[in-house]
Amino acid sequence: MTSAHREPLLVEGSGLGKTYPAGPGGAAVPAVRGLDLELRRGEALGLLGTNGAGKSTTMRMLAAVSPPTHGTLRVFGLDPLHDGPRIRARLGVVPQDDMLDQELTVRENLVVYGRYFGLPKRVLRERAERLIEFAALEAKADAPVTALSGGMRRRLTIARALVNEPEILLLDEPTTGLDPQARQLLWDRLIRLKNDGVALIVTTHYMDEAEQLCDRVLIMERGALVAGGSPRELIGAHVLPEVLELRFTGTEHAAGCAAVKELIAEGAPWRLEVLPDRLLVAAADGQDAQRRIEARVLPRASLVRRATLEDVFLALTGRALVE
Fold first, then answer.
1. Which residue in 35, 122, 255, 282 has a CA-CA distance of 20 to 30 Å to 224?
2. What's the pLDDT band for 296 if we cut at 50, 70, 90?
3. Given CA atoms 276, 281, 282, 287 in this order, what sign does their dihedral have?
4. Helix (H, G, I), strand (E, B), or coil: what is residue 232?
5. DSSP conformational letter for 144
6. In what order do the strands lie in the sheet with 199-203?
């Protein structure tokens, strides 16, 4: 049993649901339906889903700004309906849009935000310096927000959310639009927070991010839970361990597809997915599948990789674009 599992629950939701009232002449809209979730100190929980899956609604309920209409929810053992201010005082929130004060400096953004929590000036000054160092913004401490790059703004937004030393940090797509270096630095800071005992709840469209940061993930679709568990558990339960990607020239694509289907019909324990530009063959042994296929048809390029959380997500929610 991990140390996280011995920690008391910070968040406990059972049968959690949210239904928005019907508009004129319309029906009520169920945004979240029957969701169960738990969160302990030092854990990171990922909420994954297509647009409209209910992630943002769930985050608003957890942040005690939108009360659930069904089920039960306790945050720090408190009822969000009656104890919203007490809950919010112990949370940090990182919205998808930075919402920083553009005319203030980095340091001033931290100090001014901290005043909303009634912190003494001396405490705020000390805490701001510590958070500036944590966010690796020492060289920009007295620069206005307009002088910061996108990655710097995200780090400042996270630092600002930590001013009140929250026990839970809610992050809505924290690295959207960042370059790989900025994402890696942000991941490092979030892992440091986890190691210090801060619990994280993260929504993200980056499956590699969820694999890196999250101890457990919940995959949602149309407001309901589709699957939940650790990234490794979900990969083991829903997809085969390896994926062989095959690419053919335009005229050979159909022949390659036919060859793979023949091998499967002959007993090869694979799963085939046909995409316009490539074939994906899920297998327990990708290299063995590669040898057997290439003995019948030669692709323009082939690659064996391990199965990922993205393979699980697409297997459970499909590849159709959801607006």
1. 282
2. very high
3. negative
4. helix
5. B
6. 91-94, 168-172, 199-203, 44-49, 216-221, 224-229
The model's pLDDT over 124-176, given as tens digits with 9 standing for 90+, comes to: 999 999 999 999 999 999 999 999 999 999 999 999 999 999 999 999 999 98
| Strands of the chain, DSSP E | 9-20, 29-40, 44-49, 70-75, 91-94, 168-172, 199-203, 216-221, 224-229, 242-247, 271-274, 279-283, 301-306
Domains 3-230 and 240-306 share a fold: no
Q: Which two tokens stand for residue 200?
A: 């994280």
Instruction: Count how many residues are written for the chain.
Output: 323
Read off the pTM: 0.89
200-224 pLDDT tens trace: 999 999 999 999 999 999 999 999 9
What backbone phi and psi angles, to 5 degrees, belong to 31?
Answer: -90, -35
Question: How far is residue 33's CA from residue 36's CA, in Å, rounded to a whole number?
Answer: 9
| CA nearest to 111, candidates 135, 131, 139, 140 | 131
Q: Write down the architecture of domain 240-306 according to CATH.
A: 2-Layer Sandwich (3.30)
- Per the CATH hierarchy, to which homologous superfamily does domain 3-230 belong? P-loop containing nucleotide triphosphate hydrolases (3.40.50.300)
